[in-house]
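Q: Given only this backbone (157 positions), what sequence would you predict?
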């Protein structure tokens, strides 16, 4: 796969995966309306914006560094280990959950907060049951070394 094809594929996947999970569904739940105290609105907006920036950076890294997409049907040619991936193996999943949680704070919606928790459980199960075995098969010892050196869900302090 060349970088142009990877960019197109990643853009489409961005719209359909995190775009729906962290954008469309929260909109359906809240209508992007809610009465939250100002401090929660500010915190929620900051968390959501930072999480969106992490997502954009991670998707771009899959194109530039991995020469592929985050979609399992069009995986990268190279293991992505740069940028935020030096500190945490799953920044995309953490960012999606953070985007949802940020919107929960922004709109004072406990249902959205529960949805964020549910999605975290789904993502962890997917990573453990599907993604890690696929990466181990595709990248072998390189992935094992990366996995041993970098935490999955919370960066080392």
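A: Predicted residues:
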């Amino acid at each position: 796969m060349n970088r142009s094809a990877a960019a197109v594929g990643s853009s489409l996947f961005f719209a359909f995966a995190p775009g729906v999970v962290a954008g469309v569904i929260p909109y359906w739940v809240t209508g992007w309306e809610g009465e939250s105290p100002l401090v929660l609105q500010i915190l929620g907006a900051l968390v959501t914006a930072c999480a969106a920036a992490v997502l954009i950076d991670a998707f771009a890294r899959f194109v530039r560094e991995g020469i592929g997409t985050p979609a399992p049907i069009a995986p990268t040619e190279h293991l992505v280990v740069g940028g935020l991936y030096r500190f945490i193996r799953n920044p995309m999943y953490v960012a999606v959950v953070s985007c949802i949680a940020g919107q929960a704070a922004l709109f004072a919606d406990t249902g959205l907060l529960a949805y964020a928790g549910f999605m975290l459980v789904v993502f962890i199960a997917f990573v453990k049951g599907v993604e890690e075995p696929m990466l181990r098969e595709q990248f072998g010892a390189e992935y094992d070394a990366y996995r041993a050196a970098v935490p999955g869900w919370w960066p080392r302090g």
